Amino acid sequence: MLEKLGNAIKSGIDKIAGAIFVDKRTIDSALKDIQRALLEADVNVKLVKEISDKLRHVASDEKIKGIDRKEHVIKILYDELERILGKSHAINFEKNKCQKIMLVGLYGSGKTTTIAKLANYYAKRGFKTAMLGLDVHRPAATDQLEQLAKKNALNYFIDRQEKNPVKIWKKYKKELEKYELVFIDTAGRDALDSELIAEIHELNNVIAPDYSILIMPADIGQAAKKQAEEFNKIGIQGVIITRMDSSAKGGGALTACAETNALVFFITTGEKINDIETFAPKTFVSRLMGLGDLEGLLERVQSVIDEKQEKRLKKSLEEGKLTLLDIYEQLKAMEGMGSMKKILSMVPGFGQAKIPEELLGKQEGKMKKWKHAIDSMTHEEIENPELLEKQPKRIQRISKGSGVSASDIRSLLKQWKIINDFAKGGINPEAGLSEKQMQKLAKKFGKRMKF
Ligand SMILES: Nc1nc2c(ncn2[C@@H]2O[C@H](COP(=O)(O)OP(=O)(O)OP(=O)(O)O)[C@@H](O)[C@H]2O)c(=O)[nH]1
Ligand SMILES: [Mg+2]
Questions:
Q1: Which ligand 1 atom is nearest residue 270's CA?
Q2: Taking a C-beta distance cutoff of 8 angstroms, is the pair 190, 150 a contact?
């Protein structure tokens, strides 16, 4: 379940990360992947729609500009997934105190296996643990518990002859007091019928467990909601979802629990004794997305952007046609004058040519303004800055929208033109800049320079 959902979400994220503009089309295409993945994981349609609406909203929020928008979209996706998966909850057991934990659930949900996993999990963490078999309905149940206990050197208490679980409890009660954590296995049923309810009630009254935990297999998907609600009425503190490894519906089970505010204490992910882990939505989402944390995720976005930018930039340079976007992306990525140097260094031959530092440095103060100005431009204008020269009204509009003066916008255009011209002309790498080119450059920058 994890892998498939994770891959689909990653592919959605890559679409967003790799896009130049996060607009409606990009979001729709990425959302398609994400929606399909969530629905396949059996997540409630309503929740999927909620997530989609929120992402669309950010994508169309004019206040969030440019590349920042990608980060917003991904952060929201991350937060939303975490939200629908519920709150993390760890049980804090005490030392030097006997605590009883009763596991209940329908047939084959994984009670007995999980008991052994829990007894082993906490034994490894320094607790004195024991297992008590109260499943008197199936003779094989006691054997199963015994086998698991022997195989993993766990303490266990069973009685093959006794058919009354309350009597078994009373028989071992005193001895069990010596243990810090006593995990109690109970009988499964086909459904939460009156007989099962009566038995759980009776055991609850007699044993007074510190925790009653419902065991549900991931395959039941959204039906987990109904089951959690029903069992909740008879005093369940939380749930453990088993078989997360073998069902595609795990997402449904988890989100259904979140909806009913049922705490998910653990998930189990295989048949082996160690295949159990606490459930923390944050970590879970990170893992789904294949990342350690949100920062890691945003870094990944950045690196995808960088890679794509680099390719685009190379292509633009080869074709001799830089757009303002190339400049913008470098500005954004490097937040400073270094970026202009980087662009220049990619123009064939320019890297070796000695461009006076002050010539580049002069423009540093303008960088921020340029960035704002580009943010207020249309795609068309960014791709074809000539439009601004041909139709000066556009400059006025951008100036108004960005709060950047028309003269600063013109200086951006000038800068773009200079670089673009050089890109077009190409430079002989052996010779570096010719004197003529240097003079031309100097003239354009309007600076006195000595070569
Ligand atoms: N793949 C996988 N199988 C599991 C997991 N947890 C339990 N199982 C398997 O599910 C089956 C049922 O598990 P049990 O622990 O016997 O379930 P139970 O609730 O005690 O069943 P009854 O006592 O018959 O009601 C067994 O074959 C387990 O090995 C899991 O996390 N992953
Ligand atoms: Mg069992």
A1: 32
A2: no
CA of 442 to the centre of ligand 1 (A): 78
Nearest CA to ligand 1 atom 25: 107
Q: Pinpoint the residues of the chain covered by CATH 1.10.260.30.
A: 319-445
C-alpha 116 – ligand 1 centre gap (Å): 11
Where does ligand 1 bind, in terms of residues with CB under 6 Å? Answer: 105, 107-113, 135, 141, 188, 242-243, 245-246, 268-271, 275
CATH of the structural domain 2-85, one choice from 1.20.120.140, 3.40.50.150, 1.10.10.10, 3.30.10.20: 1.20.120.140
pTM: 0.65
Residues of the chain with pLDDT under 70: 1-4, 18-22, 62-69, 88, 286-310, 312-314, 317-318, 320, 327-366, 422-451
- Nearest atom in ligand 1 to the alpha carbon of residue 244 is 31
| Distance in Å, CA 102 to ligand 2 centroid | 12
Structure-block tokens of residue 358? 């002050």
Q: Which ligand is nearest to the CA of 241?
A: 1
Q: Are strands 99-104 and 211-217 parallel, antiparallel or unpaired?
A: parallel
Classify domain 99-279 at the CATH topology level: Rossmann fold (3.40.50)
pLDDT digits (tens, 9 = 90+) for 95-149: 999 999 999 999 999 999 999 999 999 999 999 999 999 998 888 999 999 999 9
For the chain, the distance separating the N- and C-terminal CA atoms, rounded to the nearest angstrom, is 65
CATH topology of domain 319-445: 434 Repressor (Amino-terminal Domain) (1.10.260)
CA distance 122 to 207: 21
Q: Quickly list H helices, 125-244.
A: 139-151, 165-176, 194-207, 223-232
Sign of CA dihedral 391, 392, 393, 398: positive
* Encoded tokens for 4: 């498939």
The boundaries of every CATH 3.40.50.300 domain in the chain are: 99-279
CATH code 1.20.120.140 region(s) in the chain? 2-85
Ligand 1: centre distance to CA 306 (Å): 47
Gap from CA of 273 to ligand 2 centroid (Å): 15
